[in-house]
């Protein structure tokens, strides 16, 4: 194998092209340590060491750093690793490791989201937010139905928060509140039933 090109990515890292194809990204210090330069031979042993030891360790550290500040989904973490130009095989192994040790758990992420504030939102809002986070629809549906079997309860919570009193509400207040709830994704039937 031959190192065709070393293309600077930023001040610290460079893309390494081997036999005409992009292979991986290394830091400048690693490039010096492994004596990589354009036109140099890359031994099979060194190639395996980089792909088998250097990059997987760095990918795990990168992923752990990414998820340490706030919960992340598997999809978000994979996206971050792809943006850092890690090979797909290393991304897959890193995600397997993180899931095996429960650093990443999409089901727990959905439950946590619903506990923290998702119960105050309509099903449509919850599903839209979680879809943007890459959560599979079937998982969303299962966890949502377990956590919030009654959408009327979510509507009641919103009405309490807005200090809505059906006894003293004027027609205009009822209309505005209904419009607000429908815009939030609740169905007309559920809204009208809760407002009376």
Describe the structure.
By secondary structure, this protein is mainly α. The chain folds into three domains: 1-42, Arc Repressor Mutant, subunit A; 50-104, Arc Repressor Mutant, subunit A, CATH 1.10.10; 106-195. The chain is built from ten helices and three strands; from the N terminus they run βββαααααααααα. The protein has a three-stranded antiparallel sheet. α6 runs antiparallel to α7 (137-147) and α9 packs antiparallel against α10. It starts with a strand and ends with a helix. The mean pLDDT is 89.
Give me the secondary-structure topology.
Layout: E1 3-8, E2 13-18, E3 21-27, H1 28-33, H2 44-67, H3 74-83, H4 88-100, H5 106-116, H6 123-132, H7 137-147, H8 151-161, H9 171-183, H10 188-195
Antiparallel strand pairs: 1-2, 2-3
In brief:
By secondary structure, the chain is mainly alpha-helical. 60% of the residues lie in helices and 10% in strands.
Average of the residue pLDDT scores: 89
Poorly predicted runs are: none
Rg = 25 Å
Distance from first to last alpha carbon: 75 Å
Number of domains: 3
| Total beta-strand segments | 3
Q: How is the largest sheet built, in terms of strand order?
A: 1-2-3
Order of helices and strands: EEEHHHHHHHHHH
What share of the residues does DSSP label as strand, in percent?
A: 5-15%
Protein structure class: mainly alpha
Number of helices: 10
Helix content range: 55-70%
Biggest beta-sheet profile: 3 strands, antiparallel
Give the overall shape, derived from the CA principal axes.
elongated
